[in-house]
Amino acid sequence: MLKYEIVIVGGGPAGLAAAIAAKEHGAASILVLERDGELGGILNQCIHNGFGLHTFKEELTGPEYAARFIDRLFQAGITYKLNTMVMDISADKVVTAINREDGMIEIHARAVILAMGCRERSRGALNIPGFRPAGVFSAGTAQRLVNIEGCLPGRKIVILGSGDIGLIMARRMALEGARVQVVAELLPYSSGLKRNIVQCLDDFGIPLKLRHTVVNIHGKKRVEGVTIAQVDERQKPISGSEIYYECDTLLLSCGLIPENELSKTLGVQLNPVTSGPLVNECLETSVEGIFACGNVLHVHDLVDFVSQEAAAAGTYAASYIKNSTGHEKSRDIPISAESGVRYTVPNTVHPQRMEEKLTVRFRVGDVYKNCYVSVYVDEKRLIHRKKQVMAPGEMEEVILNKEELEAYPGMSKITVKLEED
User: Which of 18, 20, 28, 146 is 20 to 30 A (C-alpha) from 185?
Assistant: First the structure.
């Protein structure tokens, strides 16, 4: 059996940043396991710019951003295995994986960092009626076909969902000569970043229809067209509002789901809102010595925040193997999301164990204007910060100070919520 201090599952932006941080904070032996044929994860197919503004203070493409971390991984001498699929992780941190060169291997780790990323929600999960013709792709699949395989999936495009990948692919397909006819969004607001709506739709004259969804896909062998309709407050199609679009391709950009099949079999407790693990301030899951970061924990809007979070997970994992002690769950204070806040990461905090400052990230459940983000310790308000606009597509954060929390030794919970005044 192979033995490593830290095993990291996933060689994308989260796995790379976690490995580098763990090495810099004293971990002697680290192994990164990546199922793809190269490091970098999804960034390899994201050839548009906009990455790295927070991390490197300059605008990079996805491959350029990934290359900077891959170079640092090589310089640090961190071991990695490509084309390696992790099959199982046990509670005592034995990782079972398989690849062509080694066959089935077992790796014993003192700590494991989950960094598997996320996947797209499929058509089957959306219950779209109609046949199953060729020409229906997830936006991420279309992105890989165009940017890596050099294949244009269609000429007349309709996109369902206004997630960031769908918005970016609307622009990408237009640049390749395809005609993007419409982007339909079920919700009354876009789930993508505002800048992507402007740069990818408005700048190319592509219409965005909110409160609309696909109600029928026409064609048997190949998509011939789709019918979209307006929906009511219960998201039910409104009769008489149907519009038919002739097209040969339908792209789906209807949300991302953290890849947590391994986490479930491991027994990690998951957050029903994010579908990612519940973690404490050290990004440690409910299973001792198992950490999580990046999109496997919760879906991020910017890769820079993925790198920041993953670096923290790597640092905490390195500290864990040095101290060889688990956290005192009985003294963890829950962080509650209420009144417009959908969830928080982390979900609990131990004030005596936390760093001087702790970043709590969260998303809101609707579009809010001119309201306040408030943080309460029991009934005492610690933070009351006004925000002009908040939307579900953009992540928010608040900073908790250790000194302030320690002033309330008998606290029972911390609450993050929105208030009008």
Answer: 146
